[in-house]
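Data deposition worksheet. Section B asks for the primary sequence of the deposited chain exactly as it was used as input, without tags or linkers unless they were present during the calculation. Section C holds the resulting structure in token form. Section D is free text for depositor observations; keep each observation to a single sentence. Incomplete worksheets are returned to the depositor.
Section A, Depositor: J.P.
Section B:
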Amino acid sequence: MAGASTGAAAQPREPEARFLVAQPSHSLGQAYERAAARGDFGMAPGRILESLLDRYCGSPQRGADECREHLFAYLQERLALPEEVTSAAFWSMLERIDAEFDRLVTSNPRSRSDAEFLAVHGRFREARRDIVGAALDRRLFGLSDDLLDLPQRVGELAGDSRMPLEQKLAAYQDALQRIEHEHGVRLMSVMEPVELARHELRIREAADVLGPEQRREVLERYTGPEYARRYLDYHQEQQTRSERLKAFNQERDLLLKQLASESSPEQLRQRMLAVDQRLFEKYDLQ
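Section C:
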């Protein structure tokens, strides 16, 4: 019996290994769907997918390689990849896209202006299409691109003074439905619902001042009542603190000017320490 037990223990544990690799494959697919909805997925897809593989597949090289093949098989079916796009070719294309983003975008300062960044990013998208082809580019990165462009579209709607509010809101909902239909996703499942709510609030607030109940109603439609309550409570707390801080600074500036005219530098320093402590307590900024 002892010999039989030893022999069994020495056999390869292939079924268990396969189970461990297959276990994360479903969650890996879900993670891909969320990653593909990020605005930066179309900029650095290779790095983002490598990060997913590291997170979901563990460190053993064989398991990681199998997991990579699981993900590629999922993408083959999900995106209807052409037969000529092999696993090796697919990962190589993503590496080239990452490199093009670094060359065209990362190496350029982004702080100059939004218009200049959009122009640079447009050139990167053209280079990306040259690497993968227009049809595959749209299947791989269309969702990411559309969601990256969505805030700009919302800004255009919010800033259009000629369009009635209801027409703006309908255009926003049409944009969301088009994205869902074209890419076969539910946006509420691949991005934070509160982000969608913020876009609608931005459009509404550009047209009129919203009261607390109106904001709550919009948030609840996207996030549910509990999240909406916590979100509004948090932002109300931050707004109240900001108002207290503004009052603190205004009163402190007045006292500083007053004391500076009647104090030596050392006296001013000592007096302002006492002033600050009193104002911190007064405005509850401890």
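Section D:
The two ends are 72 Å apart (CA to CA).
Confidence is low (pLDDT under 50) at residues 1-24.
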